Structure formats: C-alpha cells, structure tokens
Amino acid sequence: MKLTFLLSALLFTVYAFAQDDATTTTGSVTKTSTSTTSTDWYTAPWVWIVGAVLFILLLAAIIGGSRSTNVERSTTVVHRDIDA
Length: 84
What we know:
This protein has 84 residues and is mainly alpha-helical. 45% of the residues lie in helices and 10% in strands.
C-alpha cells in the first residue's frame, strides 16, 4: 500500500513538473506553447473592497435588527386574600 502511494505520488510530481515547461523538443521539431493571460473578476481589488463593505453592512443590519427599541413592560399584581 505504501509502495503504491509512493509510486503514484512520484508520477504525479513528475507530471506536474512536466507541465511547467513551455517549450518541448521532439527530434528536430520544437513546439512552443503560448498562453494567454486573462483577468478573472475575483482578482480585482475593488471587488474585494465592495464585497467587504457589503458584508459589513449586512452584518450590521442583522445584528442591529435583532435589538428591539419597543420595550414592553408588564406588571403582574397578585391579590392575596388575608382573611382565608
């Protein structure tokens, strides 16, 4: 079991490092892969700032909404019959 895990980890590591090389040479043919860079929406700093502000406002609304400003007081009067 340990030997199988060791060999599979070794193969995955070799495969992962093989993906890092952009230029491969096979015989006399050289292939160069080009990658295009794309900017994802979640990498922009303003998205994180807006998200944090919305989260704080939502949290404040939830916490502040649980407090009640209308305090209802009730008084219970117990009448005891002394004669009995």
